[in-house]
Automatic annotation (TrEMBL):
PROSITE patterns (alphabetical): ADH_SHORT
The name this protein goes by in its record: Short-chain dehydrogenase
Assigned protein family: Belongs to the short-chain dehydrogenases/reductases (SDR) family.
Domain of life the protein comes from: Bacteria
InterPro entries hit by this protein: NAD(P)-bd_dom_sf, Sc_DH/Rdtase_CS, SDR_fam
MF (Gene Ontology): oxidoreductase activity, acting on the CH-OH group of donors, NAD or NADP as acceptor
Pfam family, one: adh_short
Native organism: Corynebacterium flavescens
């Protein structure tokens, strides 16, 4: 690892997380990737020269085990997240709400709490947290109540963390419509046809677009904090 700066990326087995890990590694970071699907993580780690450890951000024990492997952390990319369901509020599943809150909001809190001491110890106050929000955290939409609520929580987490002044920079990235098939597959319970319909006939972002934003924010000097960044395809209002 030598003296390379260390970036942790959660939810890195696919989509934006995997793309962010690749972009950071290409930019000279030593990357540590975490997700539940260890086989995929290990393949990614072999490709980019990273470290891979199993991580379930909804589990205190899993987070503690993951963190036990880390001596230094300069950057935390809280990417693990997801949505379930598109039913009207009155028909939504409380279990789906609970899962979305656990992985998007409480998972973000768990990782911040576990890694804050290492981030605070980064040289020259250069520690950085990038929380993956969503335009769903700013603009509610029909059928999105549970996911809207969870991503609004991520926005509050980012805002409050800045106010509490840990000498660690905090950035919230808010993507719009990104064509990552697994996100929609998960949302629609594996229904590939419904998942594909979300992006059909639209101009969509791809995971690498958001990964480039992660890479750029992470490349800036320690005096700089990008507060929020909203990234949409050109046709999304």
């Amino acid at each position: 690892m030598s003296d390379k700066k260390v970036a942790v990326v959660t939810g890195a087995s696919s989509g934006i997380g995997a793309a962010s890990a690749r972009a950071l590694a290409a930019d000279g970071w030593h990357v540590v990737v975490g997700a539940r699907r260890l086989e995929r993580l290990e393949a990614l780690a072999a490709e980019i020269g990273a470290e891979a450890y199993a991580l379930d951000v909804t589990s205190d024990e899993s987070v503690a085990e993951f963190v036990s492997h880390l001596d230094r952390v300069d950057l935390l990319v809280n990417n693990a997240g997801g949505a379930k369901g598109m039913e009207p509020l009155v028909d939504t599943s409380i279990d789906d709400w609970r899962w979305m809150y656990e992985v998007n909001a409480l998972g973000t809190v768990r990782m911040i709490q576990a890694l804050m001491p290492k981030l605070e110890a980064a040289p020259d106050k250069s520690g950085l947290i990038i929380n993956m929000g969503s335009i769903a955290g700013w603009a509610p939409y029909a059928g999105g109540s549970g996911y809207n609520a969870a991503k609004h929580a991520v926005r509050v987490i980012s805002r409050v963390l800045r106010l509490e002044e840990h000498d660690v920079r905090v950035t919230e990235l808010d993507p719009g419509r990104v064509a990552t098939e697994e996100f929609s597959l998960n949302r629609f319970g594996g229904d590939a046809e419904r998942a594909a319909e979300v992006y059909k006939g639209e101009v969509n972002l791809v995971a690498e677009d958001i990964a480039e934003a992660v890479r750029w924010v992470a490349s800036l000097p320690a005096r700089t904090n990008i507060d929020t960044m909203t990234i949409k395809p050109r046709t999304q209002s």
